[in-house]
Write a structure and sequence with these properties.
single chain; Dna Topoisomerase Vi A Subunit, Chain: A, domain 2; two-stranded antiparallel ribbon; 4-stranded parallel β-sheet; 12% strand; 203 residues; Helicase, Ruva Protein, domain 3; alpha/beta
Length: 203
């Protein structure tokens, strides 16, 4: 049986999404054709593509040129967290991280044609240079850049490239796994809680 070209094209579009195989793509195509959610999905995609942009500082998605996180003066300017995707940013924000971000939207992959410019690593370098200059002018401690990526060949190569790229700056660079950062944040919360224990509360 020859499926209509429009239906095949719809399946191919879903199949091209990360983590979606042919069978799941076919089920999704059938669902959007049989339910009203298909029109809602179409409208949501069009609206998002029309109104969202990359924050000029951290490159997360925002409807403003600079996202609210980057304009929050209460966040630490001495900590910068480099992550591969916006979902990672959400994860660490929920975990209590309160510094700056830089979202790569991917990993280095020469086979896929993804190099430093595709990940906007020159923008990361410029961001670090700006933060280092601000820290030096205020006589503050050195900037700490934490690169937190899932373990893979591409992630290891990306982390190493960033570490080498920032080697000439007055900043510390740590290459961490998500598990290591989770432990760091847990320790930070423990110290913060201890600082707020009233005097004599342990007597």
């Amino acid at each position: 049986m020859q499926l209509p070209a429009q239906y095949r094209q719809l399946i191919e579009c879903f199949d091209a999404l990360p983590g979606i195989g042919p069978r799941a793509a076919a089920r999704m195509a059938q669902h959007v054709l049989e339910h009203d959610s298909g029109e809602r999905l179409q409208q949501a995609i069009l609206t998002a593509r029309r109104t969202l942009q990359h924050c000029c500082c951290c490159r997360t998605y925002s409807d403003l040129s600079i996202c609210p996180l980057c304009t929050d003066d209460e966040r630490s300017a001495l900590h910068l967290l480099v992550v591969s995707g916006v979902e990672d940013q959400f994860r660490w924000e929920e975990a209590g991280y309160r510094g700056g971000y830089f979202v790569l939207h991917g990993l280095l992959s020469p086979v896929a044609g993804i190099g430093p410019r595709q990940l906007h690593l020159p923008d990361l370098k410029q961001r670090v240079e700006t933060l280092v200059s601000a820290a030096e002018s205020s006589s503050a401690e050195n900037l700490l850049v934490k690169v937190v990526l899932e373990s893979s060949v591409e992630a290891d190569a990306t982390g190493q490239f960033i570490e080498d790229m920032l080697a000439g700056f007055a900043c510390r660079v740590q290459l961490l796994t998500p598990g290591q950062l989770a432990v760091d944040l847990q320790h930070a919360r423990s110290f913060s809680a201890a600082d707020h224990v009233p005097a004599g509360a342990d007597k």
